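Hello, quick one for you while I still have it in my head. A protein chain has come my way and I'm curious about its shape. I'm sending you its amino acid sequence along with the backbone structure tokens. I'd be grateful if you could look everything over and explain what you see. Here's the protein in full, and shout if anything looks odd to you:
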Amino acid sequence: MVLDFTDRGIYCPAGDFYIDPTRPVDRALITHAHADHARPGMGHYLSADATRPMLDHRLGKISSETVPYGASLQIGGAKVSFHPAGHVPGSAQIRIEVAGEVWVAAGDYKTVADGVSEAFEPVPCHAFITESTFGLPVFKWTPDADLRAQINAWWAANAAAGRASLIGAYSLGKAQRVLAALDPSIGPILTHSAVEGTNRVLRAQGVALPPTIEVTQDTDPKDTPGALAVAPPSALDSAWAKRLGPHATAFASGWMALRGIRRRRSVDRGFVMSDHADWDGLNAAIRATGAEKIFVTHGYTAVFTKWLREQGFDARDIDRQDSATDESDDG
């Protein structure tokens, strides 16, 4: 096998490296900068060029190197390249070729362009390692144009009623998608410091975002009437949120497709927005690779593996349990 699945992560014996390792290793290849994929403590990091600024922002001083999307690098007996995954800005799939056999570790990915991330590119391969965070037919994402209209109508209604609006969205990827969807003519756009720190890094990379104002201890809601704020989900019910004055709350996540989770989140509105592929996206991505072997990890693995086998794929469940029912994941 080109890749092994170990307790430290996905391992390539021919190149002696790990992909998104879960524990410290000598050489780590990183698909993207979310904390569950890019962890501290590795001896050396390798990523796509577009991932490096966010790795530096989140991990501090590290030993690292980068390569452009599509460029090949020989590591021992393995030829490696990074290709856009569409998940968040800078995210990548990793292609590994050993003795003519090609495997692709997709990491997290999304097949529909979102306007802020590099668009997903199918990579032909013999074996494909796919996530299944939303690997159930119930998950089907709202088209972007409809989503934009929903968010802006909700914001405008709140502003007309004299309330601010607060949307919870993960600070890397989801927050920028929300920001890119906003109509600045409705009112001021505010951000939590975690979101604004990420914005600064991405703006320096050329990601286009509307003007934003970071909320501080000195923020007075009277100065920003009708504002919409974007913050990490943890800030929705916090002392920080009280700085906005009277406000309505929303959460942007693929998990909002499930009514029970919407209720548990205790928000006024849920927007079905995800940085992962939905059911149709997962199936389309797998078919586009032409892969004969599919390894399913992270999510509704048992259900999705069974479905793929019924479609004629040689599919294997790597997690061996369904773990995607926890909405704390960056959906």
User: Anything to note?
Assistant: The chain is about 25% helix and 25% strand. Residues 320-328 have pLDDT under 50 and may be disordered. The longest strand covers residues 78-84.
